[in-house]
Each structure stands twice: as C-alpha cells, then as structure tokens.
Amino acid sequence: MRSICPALVATLALAGTSFAATINVPGDHATIQGAIDASSNGDVIAIAAGTYYEHSLNPDGKAITIGSASGNLDVTIDAQQGGSVFFIWSGEEESTVIRDLVITGGSTSYHGGGIYCEYSNPIILNCMIMGNTSEDEGGGIYCDYYSKPTISHCIISDNSAKYGAGISCRNGSDPTIGNCTITGNSSIYGGGGIRCMFNSSPAILSCTISNNNSDSSSGGGIYCFSSSSPMILNSVIEGNTAGGGGGGMYFINCIPTLTLCTIKNNTSQYDGGGILCYDDGSGQVPTLALTSVCGNTPNQIYDSWDDFFGNTVNNECTFSTTGPCCVTSGCTSLYEAQCADLGGTWLGEGDSCEDCPASCTGDLDNNGIVNIDDVLGVIGAWGVCP
Q1: How many CB atoms lie within 10 A of CB 346?
Q2: C-alpha distance from residue 326 to each of 196, 272, 333, 361 (Å)
Q3: Domains contained in the chain, CATH given
Q4: pLDDT number for residue 369
Q5: Which residues are 169's β-sheet partners?
Q6: What is the DSSP string of 190-232?
Q7: Residue of higher predicted confidence among 308 and 201
Q8: Is 19 exposed, middle or buried (0-12, 13-18, 19+ CB in 10 A)?
Q9: Residues 6+ apart with CB under 8 A from 214
Q10: Which helix (H) or strand (E) holds 380?
Q11: pLDDT value at residue 92
Q12: In the β-sheet with 222-225, what is the strand arrangement from edge to edge?
C-alpha cells in the first residue's frame, strides 16, 4: 500500500481543509433541516422531487446551496401554516443560495411568511414563492436591517399580508429584484406587490408587477415611504389596483427613478391611477426617462415629476408590442417609440437581439469578443454570395 506523506497530512489538518459535498434529501437525510444541520460551507443540499412539509428552515449562516436536485421546479416546501418557510438571519452572504424551489404555505403573525431575511444577503434564484401569509409585513419575502438579497428569475404570486404582500423591505434594506414576476398578491394596506420604507431602495430590473392589490390603502403595485428611492429599469407595472391612491405606484418623501418602464391600466379609488407622488416641498419627486404612462384610472400621474426625455403620458396606450432595439452599447427589448428616442434601430416584433449588427468590427457572432469562432465563421461562408 502506498504511504501518505505525514507532512502533507499535518499540513491539511492545520489548514482545516475540507471538501464540498452533496447531501441528498431524503437519501442521506430524511429532512431538509437535517441536511442543513449536517452541512458545511460549500456543500450542496440536493433535494429529490416531491413535497416536504417543513417550516422555519434556517441555513444558520452557512455558505451552502439548497435546491432541487434536478434544477427544475419539482420540489415544494409546504410549511402548512406552521411558521415562515425560511429564516435567513445569521449574516448569510451571496454564497448562501436558495434555488429551484416552490415555497408555499408559510404563515406568521410577524414578518415574512415565505422568507424572512435579516442582516443577510443571500441569493434567491428561480423560485416560486406563492400562497404565503403574514399578519404584518411581507407575505412572500421580508427584508429587514440592511439586508441586500438578490432575488432573480422568481415568481412571487398570491401572497397576502397586512403590508407589502409580495416583498416588503425596511430599515436600510436594498434588495436587487431582477427578471421576476410579482403578481396576484394582496395587502390590506400599502404595497400589494412591493413595499419599501425607511431608507430602503430596491433595484427592480426587468420585472413585471401586475394584478396586485392594496385593498384599503395605496400603492397597488409599489408603495414607497420615507427616504426610500427605488431604481426601476425596463419593467412593466400593469393592472394593479388600490383602495386609496396610486394604483400602480405610490411614493411619499422618496426620489424613485424610472427608466424604460411601462405603467399601464392600473386603477385607484382616488388620485394617481398610474403614479401618485407626494412632494413634501423638498423636491423629492420621481424621475422618468423613456417611460410610458397610459390607460390608468382615474388619472395618469398625480403631482409632479422630473421629465428627462422620451416619456409619453396619455390616456390611451397606443403602442403595440416590444421588440429588440439595437444601440451602440448593445440591445434591449423596447417599444418602437422608446427605441427611436434612444437613437437605436428597432427590429420589430418577432426578431431577436441576435439580429443586431455586431457591436465591434470582426465580432461576427456578436458575443463581444473577436476570436477564432469569428474566423471560422468567415471560412465556413467562403465563396460567392447567393
């Protein structure tokens, strides 16, 4: 038998070297929490398809990934109203990942029916967070005390809460919410879809916030209060309703920025079917650029806003569909009028960004790099053009 160098063994022991492992549920541990408890930093909790009746799952600060073994949405964690589904409050960072899970049945008298996040910055990826309830804030997700989770490619739907039914953030929490659909959530008071307050400024990127409701108050889609200044980019806020003002969005003492957005067909009981903004005299009003506000009831925007360029504010949504807009910096999906305001080339419905001209000479496959693949492409097409 080949001997192992004693010096190497000693070095590894002193360094505390460990190797990442995959822990299977239910193969290695019958429960998800049991697998988490047995895990170390770098491990993957791979959950087999099925429904698991657990609540109050706590990563306990570990840098681990918890998700479906297949990478599909075939794992449901149903808390059965026993508490929040996940508690993430031990300083987790981006190396703690919750992914490919259906998170449902969470219920709490406090905050965060689906996910409670405090002092932590996890990644929540490709999850469906639905049917959770909070008697206070954050039916789907609640972020508190400087939490900055990344919430990406998720569907957050049919959650309920007193405040902030889909996502609620407060006290310096700045989540990044990207490529998400936030729909069908219902709050009693402010923020059917998203609520942010007390210096919390989420970045909302390429999201659809639709058909959410604030039953007795304001901000059917988004409600922001007290020095919270969200940045909203390339997003659609549509079909939301409010029993108060601001069917689409409600801002008070905030400086939100909206770029390349569409706010349409939202409804409020009082003013600001699309946007309601209260300026306290400090000039804190929304900034709009390349944004369409249309078809909202009873009016489009109540109070003032900073109009940068390319905005359309009218009763009728006259634009049709989005399509790829080719600009020198790349490509994004826009309405034709928005693309024209940017000086881009609009390719039309049904085309793709792959049809845009290469952004640099020689980059024939438009991947941002001139390399051998471009050369091979020229050789493959060598000859007389048809």
Answers
A1: 19
A2: 34, 34, 9, 15
A3: 20-319 (2.160.20.10), 320-378 (no CATH)
A4: 53
A5: 143, 196
A6: S-SSEEEESS---EEES-EEES-EESSSS-SSEEEESS---EE
A7: 201
A8: exposed
A9: 186, 187, 188, 189, 190, 191, 192, 220, 223, 241, 242, 243, 244
A10: helix 372-380
A11: 96
A12: 86-88, 115-118, 141-144, 167-170, 194-197, 222-225, 249-252, 275-278, 301-302
Token pair for residue 266?
């939202």
355: phi then psi, degrees, rounded to nearest 5: -85, -5
71: alpha, beta or left? (left if phi > 0; alpha if psi -120 to 50): left
Tokens of 26: 């239910």
Which is it for the CA torsion 213, 153, 144, 88, positive or negative? positive
Spell out the residues 6+ positions from residue 74 whose beta carbon is closer than 8 angstroms to its own: 49, 50, 68
Phi, psi of 277, deg, nearest 5? -130, 125
pLDDT confidence tier of residue 10, bands split at 50, 70 and 90: very low
DSSP code for 358: P
Cα–Cα distance, 239 to 184 (Å, whole number) = 10
- In three-state secondary structure terms, 13 is helix
Does the structure show a pLDDT above 60 at 294?
A: yes
Reading the block at residue 32, the tokens are 């998800």
